[in-house]
Amino acid sequence: MHxxxxxxxxxxxxxxxxxxxxxxxxxxxxxxxxxxxxxxxPQVAVLTAAFFVVxxxxxxxxxAKWHFVLTxxxxxxxxxxxxxxxxxxxALQAAFFSVGGLMVxxxxxxxxxxxxxxxxxxxxxxxxxxxEPVVFGGGFAAGAAAVMLGALLAATALFxxxxxxxxxxxxxxxxxxxxAAIEGLVTAxxxxxxxxxxxxxLDARPLPPVRQETAHG
Amino acid sequence: MANWxxxxxxxxxxxxxxxxxxxxHKLIVFASxxxxxxxxxxxxxGGAPAQGLAVTAFDPQGAELARTTTDDQxxxxxxxxxxxxxxxxxxxxDGHGAEFPLQxxxxxxxxxxxxxxxxxxxxxxxxxxxxxxxxxxxxNSSQHAAAxxxxxxxxxxxxxxxxxxxxxxxxxxxxxxxxxxxxxxILGLAGIAFYFLGVRRKQAAEAxxxxxxx
Lengths: 217, 214
Hints:
heterodimer, A: Arp2/3 complex 21 kDa subunit ARPC3, 2 strands, globular, B: alpha+beta, Immunoglobulin-like, three-stranded antiparallel beta sheet, 21% strand, elongated
């Protein structure tokens, strides 16, 4: 989902997208920082580190290579704070591993943090449900939707920069369906686990255990 | 809360330890010239060939010179029509890309220069360009010796090209210390955020104290 600098910087429209992406990402980051209070700093830091590390682990999925992005989870836990988290992680990736690039940082931040914030509003209420299957479903939807929305945004940026329509369709439908499903399953499992052991991370009550634990000392 | 954070960092450290040999799925392009023919190869880190991707050659001014696609092995061939620096750009469909600069010195001298593009020869030439052009060796040596030398030169160039390829691969490997360094930066930024938010919190507390005291 990372876009590379050379591809957008090559055309006039591409450069406009770079600037627009930069401005929108800056605005999102400002909102995110404003909404981050003292108690949330560790959560932001831990998820930033998780995102940074997990993006470096590449899995072979048939013909395609994929790495987890965890943007759905970031959105559900962090809300708007996903913007600064993604920005920091991507900046470090660009600096250390020359993934993406500094000029394209804004667009890439938008491509990943935008869907995260969308998931926060779309599926936040669902994952705060009292019923475990609903929570699982919400988590799955958030994880999968974050990937697909990110791919959609990335493809839109490429399309607007003058790439062909086949690129658009190929990138969205073919390349990201399987990764989205896997990402959804992982996000769903994590969300259900969080609801059981650390529900306050999702601003929710603890999920009632399915069967009563036997009391012992 | 603190407990949870501690455990998360331990888990992260474990992931990092396991992930250290993993490489970013970066695209790498490599090319060398033999006569007026440019042979190149595009592959992803780890060695998987980049198949069926568009390869575009640009001159130093950014004008397109030639265009082709990579085959099943990720290899491609272009014919150079000018003696100028070539910039070979390979793009994947999802926005990953890579480029390789091919210096004019690698191309035969009898090709026409492109405007002012050929320019003065680069002072910091890559190892392969220190090798004098094959053509200049023909004087005062027998035909046979020249052929032998040119074969040797070709083998040498292939060796250098392979070495260069290995070097790129090595340079691009994800390294544990980089990953740990990145996590260190994130911790540091969190600390800075704590500091500023803490100052704000203290000021707010003092303000409420002052209001309460009189």
